Amino acid sequence: MSDNVFDLLTALEQDFNAQAALVDSKDKLEEIRVRFLGKKSEINSVLKGLKDMEPEARKVMGARASAFRENVERFIKSRETELVNLDIAREIEAAGGFDITLPGDYGLKGSMHPITIVARELTQIFTSMGFNVVDGPELESEYYNFEALNVPADHPARDMQDTYWCDNGQLLRTQTSTCQIRAMEKFGAPLKIIAPGRCFRNESIDASHENTFFQFEGMVIDKDVSISNLIYCMKQLLSKFFQKDVEVRLRPGFFPFVEPGFELDLKCMICGGKGCPTCKQSGWIELLPCGMVHPNVLRAGGIDPEEYTGFAFGGGLTRLAMMRYGIRDIRVLNSGDIRVMEQFNKVIY
Ligand code: FA5
User: Fold this and answer.
1) With helix as H, strand as E and coil as C, how does 204-264 read?
2) 191-200 and 132-133: which strand pairing?
3) Whose CA is nearest to atom 23 of ligand 1?
4) What's the rounded Cα separation, in Å, for the pair 32 and 22?
């Protein structure tokens, strides 16, 4: 019995070696698999017959039969890979040498600009507090940028914001406060708006000043709005935005469109208040001027100051982004340098 099995295994091995040498396609490989490993294969009959053998012979023949099976399996696996590679090589040849297996060129991955990220965050915070988002043109009239905001021609406050004038008398808005009047005209009172947007000033550029930067304007008008509402709103904004305790200071500030007016400064988050080029060694960043809306401004917006009061604020959005991300120099934000933007491609919105 064991002699027969021995001969059978030898014949099978020879047969397999002869067949294996001829395999040049997936179909032939499948034929080999069925023939030498399939349910009805001879090796399976051998394995089934082992149980009738003497223990010693069973051990020897069993080991040989298993080794044969493993050999066939190994061959099939490696030949399969070779055949796939062969197919690819043929396709490359047919495509005139173009390697279809090379990874594709996905190009550069885009990323959100830090100012956009911060603008969206602010918008979310304010809308959760019941504010509506409004917009206004960047190319503005003198009326909306100055006059209606209680800054008549020849008012010294105009010098605070060096303006880019156009030949036709229009200007590039120097502040998002232009949106105050437009919103009052459009929606009347009560009113609760936020207006993030780009502003322009013809001023010397340094680590914290750009000629093109972003602000976000806010305005609340209702009956009996007071300074405590203003302070509460500013605190809510900063604690929601930074999600940690931040140090601020409030000092009197002059803006013709508010009375009283305040400057809300944030302790510089670049140097922790020690003084650095970003905060001009002062330890503080001017961030959030605000105040109670001047009655003249309410009137210009068509709202009766006897009936309504309000507060307004105009924050430096670009500077907020700098504090959030530890950006020391404002100039990188307008640089268009891809190496700067790449650092933000993990921020998902
Ligand atoms: C204004 O523009 C007022 N419209 C703000 C306001 C609104 C006051 C409503 C009261 C009520 P100011 O000129 O200070 O204020 O600018 C506001 C903020 O914009 C500053 O605190 C600063 O964070 C930012 N900012 C001003 N100029 C620049 C600049 N050149 N580069 C970057 N950010 C600037």
Assistant:
1) CCECCECCEEEEEEEEEEECCCCHHHHHHHHHHHHHHHHCCCCCEEEEECCCCCEEEEEEE
2) parallel
3) 316
4) 10
Q: CB of 149 closer than 6 A to ligand 1? A: no
Q: Ligand 1: which atom is nearest the Cα of residue 293?
A: 11
Which CATH homologous superfamily contains domain 114-347?
Bira Bifunctional Protein; Domain 2 (3.30.930.10)
Q: Tell me the angle at which helices 2-22 and 42-49 cross, rounded to the nearest 10 degrees.
A: 160
Rounded CA gap, 198 and 214, in Å? 4
Pocket flag, ligand 1, residue 314 (CB < 6 Å)? yes
Give the residue ranges of DSSP H helices in 152-211.
Answer: 178-187
Beta bridge partners of 222: 309
Query: How confident is the model over 15-32, as pLDDT tens digits?
Result: 999 998 888 899 999 999
CA dist., res. 324 & res. 10, Å (int): 77
In this structure, what token pair is assigned to residue 252? Answer: 């009197």
pLDDT in tens, 267-323: 888 888 999 988 889 999 888 999 999 999 999 999 999 999 999 999 899 998 998
List Cβ neighbours of 87 (8 Å cut-off, separation of 6 or more): none
The whole-angstrom separation of Cα 325 and Cα 107 is 26
DSSP character string of 65-124: HHHHHHHHHHHHHHHHHHHHHHHHHHHHHHTTT--TTSPP---PPP---HHHHHHHHHHH
DSSP state of 186: H
In this prediction the pTM is 0.70
